[in-house]
């Protein structure tokens, strides 16, 4: 018996990625893909790579399913849940930021879905607040230190592809503007800072609001690369061992002893991490695909845990190297 899945807000980037993953999932079946703006159209008319893959059409209703993915714009998931009645047994995975800090929504309590942070809690949960893409990349680089109480002030830079801005056309996502260009945005004020701080403080209570983050828009479509710097006196070999031990049982996060590249993770659910140290300054580099490990892939990973199936099911994807 397959897990019956549905998607609300299925016409955007995360909706499209979730469709692709569910269509190829060995233990799940996509029952419906909801989109008010595209209702009645075939999925492949909007997500054009799906031609020949499915004959499903976008709908504007909500059939009963086992798990519902909310791929709505930030702020819309709470409204949607307040205006629609779901079966009490339906699992919900929200891709927006509505429940990452305040997880209460009526009778539903949402758990923060960063697998490497609280895998066992997720296994016992019915409602998941999927982490933000930058938050995922940066936290995966810091969790091992926080667990040991070793975090000091963290200065982070990160660059993201244009898909991180969503499908709606914006001035800063025009091809002619983005090509051969890089620019900062939301310096020190990015919306993912609060969820990062909440997680890290739960592991290291004295950490406080000590992440200083400068995000950049990059000249590519998908992926996130971050570099976090902090002061630490421990030897690099000791730190490397700490990271390897923390992620020893992780299905998708890998600590490498050489420099990493963004292309290692594009089109996969992987996170790769590398460490460099000069004097008492440690730099942690991380790379993920913002639409997969930073969104839809992580959501499927959460679904797998919630339903007690193999964590990697439907997620053994190949990176784009060339």
From TrEMBL:
Functional pathway: Amino-acid biosynthesis; L-arginine biosynthesis; N(2)-acetyl-L-ornithine from L-glutamate: step 3/4
EC number: 1.2.1.38
Broad class of the protein's primary localization: cytoplasm
GO molecular function: N-acetyl-gamma-glutamyl-phosphate reductase activity; NAD binding; NADP+ binding
A GO cellular component entry from the record: cytoplasm
UniProt keyword annotations, A-Z: Amino-acid biosynthesis, Arginine biosynthesis, Cytoplasm, NADP, Oxidoreductase
Domain Semialdehyde dehydrogenase NAD-binding, residue spans: 4-125
Signal sequence extent: none
Name this protein carries in UniProt: N-acetyl-gamma-glutamyl-phosphate reductase
Organism, scientific name: Flexibacter flexilis DSM 6793
């Amino acid at each position: 018996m397959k897990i019956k899945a549905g998607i609300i807000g299925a016409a955007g980037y995360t909706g499209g990625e979730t469709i692709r993953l569910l269509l190829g999932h060995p233990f799940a079946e996509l029952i419906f893909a909801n989109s008010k703006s595209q209702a009645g159209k075939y999925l492949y008319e909007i997500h054009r790579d799906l031609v020949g893959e499915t004959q499903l059409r976008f709908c504007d209703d909500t059939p009963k399913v086992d798990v519902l993915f909310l791929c709505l714009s930030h702020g819309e998931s709470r409204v949607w849940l307040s205006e629609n009645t779901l079966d009490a047994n339906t699992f919900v995975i929200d891709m927006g930021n509505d429940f990452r800090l305040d997880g209460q929504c009526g009778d539903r309590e949402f758990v923060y879905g960063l697998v490497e942070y609280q895998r066992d809690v997720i296994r016992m949960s019915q409602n998941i607040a999927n982490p933000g893409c930058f938050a995922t990349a940066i936290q995966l680089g810091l969790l091992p230190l926080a667990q040991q109480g070793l975090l000091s002030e963290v200065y982070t830079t990160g660059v993201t592809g244009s898909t991180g801005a969503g499908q709606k056309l914006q001035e800063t996502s025009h091809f002619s503007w983005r090509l051969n260009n890089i620019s900062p945005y939301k310096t020190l004020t990015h919306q993912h800072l609060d969820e990062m701080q909440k997680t890290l403080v739960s592991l290291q209570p004295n950490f406080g609001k000590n992440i200083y983050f400068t995000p950049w828009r990059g000249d590519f479509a998908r992926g996130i690369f971050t570099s976090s710097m902090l002061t630490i006196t421990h030897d690099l070999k000791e730190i490397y061992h700490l990271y390897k031990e923390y992620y020893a049982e992780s299905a998708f996060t890998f600590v490498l002893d050489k420099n990493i590249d963004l292309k290692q993770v594009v089109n996969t659910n992987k996170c790769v991490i590398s460490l460099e140290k000069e004097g008492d300054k440690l730099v942690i580099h991380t790379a993920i695909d913002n639409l997969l490990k930073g969104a839809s892939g992580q959501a499927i990973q959460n679904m797998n845990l919630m339903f007690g199936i193999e964590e990697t099911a439907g997620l053994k994807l190949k990176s784009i190297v060339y």
